[in-house]
Design goal:
The chain has two helices and 15 strands. The chain is α+β, with helices and mostly antiparallel strands. The longest helix is centred in the first third of the chain and has 22 residues. The chain is globular. 31% of the residues are buried.
Length: 196
């Protein structure tokens, strides 16, 4: 009887482990801090099942501090790196450019999703837009995305290219030959991913 119970318990544990692995996805991740990119400037791929799981995996891979606290509203990230959430500023996330209306441990990721964690100060209209950089034939296009994932131009956007700044265009800016990664900033927005 004891042997049969142990076999059933082992089978149940294996089934739960397989279910957990089956729900995991290959996703891209980037963590933008208050003043610099903390992890994943080029949005590397990791295995994760939720945005919170993605952050925890990135923290282990990048050896940076991330703290999760539990409240009556559920789990939330109250600190990444040196900056803790306080007042109207804190850590938020987007999945595929939009902020889900649920907690980071409640969103089921699927293969190919992009998770972005960033430090933001919130105003009456929500959080700041996040920038994304696209490249085609050596020309870079900068777009801003609001909390709903709506795309727009990024006024005042600048491209950072080999230590120099170049005005960016929503329709595309050709930067010529360069050696390092290119990224974008704009006033009041979260900096972009980095591309070759």
């Amino acid at each position: 009887m004891l042997r049969r119970s142990l076999i059933v318990a082992a089978a149940l544990a294996a089934a739960l482990a397989l279910a957990s692995v089956a729900s995991a996805a290959l996703v891209h991740i980037r963590v933008e801090g208050k003043t610099l990119t903390i992890f994943g400037a080029t949005e590397p791929t990791i295995v994760a099942s939720t945005p919170l799981d993605a952050l925890e995996s990135a923290a282990k891979a990048g050896e940076f501090y991330a703290h999760v606290t539990t409240s009556s509203f559920g789990n939330y990230v109250d600190q990444i790196g040196f900056y803790a959430a306080s007042g109207d500023a804190g850590w938020v996330f987007k999945v595929d450019r939009a902020s889900p209306p649920v907690a980071a441990d409640q969103v089921q990721l699927k293969d190919g999703d992009t998770v972005e964690w960033y430090y933001a100060t919130f105003g009456p209209n929500g959080g700041p837009p996040t920038l994304e950089l696209f490249v085609k034939s050596g020309c870079y296009r900068v777009a801003a995305f609001d909390d709903n994932g709506k795309e727009s131009a990024a006024p005042g956007a600048l491209l950072h290219v080999d230590g120099r700044l170049q005005k960016a265009s929503y329709t595309g800016t050709c930067v010529g030959p360069h050696h390092g990664l290119v990224w974008a900033t704009a006033p009041g927005a979260i900096r972009s991913n980095r591309l070759p």
